[in-house]
Amino acid sequence: MKLNAYKLRRSSSSEKEKGKIKKNDIYIVLDNVLDTYNVGAIFRLADAVAAKKLLLCGYTETPPNSRIKKASINTTEWVDWEHVVDTKSAILHLKSYILNLKVIAIEQSSKSIPYTEADYEFPIALVVGNETRGVSKETLEISDQIVELPLFGVNVSLNVIVSLAIVLYKSLERNK
């Protein structure tokens, strides 16, 4: 069914309807992401891949927020999320109760590997960072892998939502 933007923004959810959606063992962690439009777009992406949970960490803005709502096209109503004060604590908590969780940071680093070579076996937590400073050093230190996407032009980085989308769909491809 194809919905226009008006219908998408006015969709409603209930706990019963949310419970019917089969979730993938994907956790998305936002490490101090500043741009509310990026946050909203990540909600939309989390819904598209049926991620289990979105963790908004540090000073990442949370719903209700009009810009997040607009960019998310109301998926803030469908996606399970929570705010956690500290990204490192959020990841350590996830690792404490999710057996075999692999944490993969998407970041340019001397320790990164090409995103095509990562082990994306579920369950995974994908971490993206601040638009200027990237994923924090503390978070990188507790990540199991750091992946990066190749850049062939003049620009030295991609938008956080673009990088996350590419890696998310690669992880889905590997788990089919």
Q: Can you offer a commentary on this structure?
A:
Helix 3 packs parallel to helix 4 (66-72). The relative contact order is 0.18. The protein has a seven-stranded parallel β-sheet with strand order 3-2-1-6-4-7-5. It has helices spanning 5-9, 15-19, 36-48, 66-72, 87-97, 137-142, 160-174, and strands at residues 24-31, 51-57, 81-84, 102-106, 113-114, 124-129, 145-148. By secondary structure, the protein is α/β, with parallel strands linked by helices. It is globular and about 40 Å long. The chain has one domain: 3-Layer(aba) Sandwich (Alpha/beta knot), CATH 3.40.1280.10. The mean pLDDT is 92. Helix content is 35%, strand content 20%. Helix 3 (36-48) links the parallel strand 1 and strand 2.
How many individual β-strands?
Answer: 7
Round the mean pLDDT to the nearest integer and report it: 92
| Helical segment count | 7
Distance between the termini: 24 Å
According to CATH, what is the topology? Alpha/beta knot
Q: List low-pLDDT spans.
A: none
Main sheet overview: 7 strands, parallel
* Class per helix and strand makeup: alpha/beta
Query: What is the CATH domain class?
Result: Alpha Beta
Strand content: 15-25%
- Round the Cα radius of gyration to an integer and report it: 16 Å
The spatial strand order of the largest sheet comes to 3-2-1-6-4-7-5
SSE blueprint:
Elements: H1 5-9, H2 15-19, E1 24-31, H3 36-48, E2 51-57, H4 66-72, E3 81-84, H5 87-97, E4 102-106, E5 113-114, E6 124-129, H6 137-142, E7 145-148, H7 160-174
Parallel strand pairs: 1-2, 1-6, 2-3, 4-6, 4-7, 5-7
Helix pairs in contact: 3-4, 3-7
